[in-house]
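quick one before i forget lol
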Amino acid sequence: MYWEYPTLTGEIIGVHQPSQEGYQQTEKKMHNGKALAEMYLLSMTDSLVTSAWSTFGYVAQGLGGLKPWILYKPENRTAPDPACGRAMSMEPCFHAPPFYDCKAKTGVDTGKLVPHVRHCEDMSWGLKLV
């Protein structure tokens, strides 16, 4: 890709990926260190494209202060339309937010309680700061 479409200035682009184990190895400290290094490297990019529900993407966008492009997950084996969209903020998605209003003693849509909290672009029940 970089050979066919070089940068305008001719600068060299390098891609570094320390964690190539292929699957998560949570209990191994070396694997965890490589994963953290990879998230940090992602955070140093000028632009970021992540897959939906990506922990690496969420951490990288938060560390780097980036509003990424998110590739949406297919549903029922159907490609989403549009296939991607721009995140509304650099904040990560909280996958398991509370949905109970203690004062009202009932379930509520916590994405509508305050204007600075909204549902995530890539997970309808998740919440994020905007």
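fyi The radius of gyration is 18 Å.
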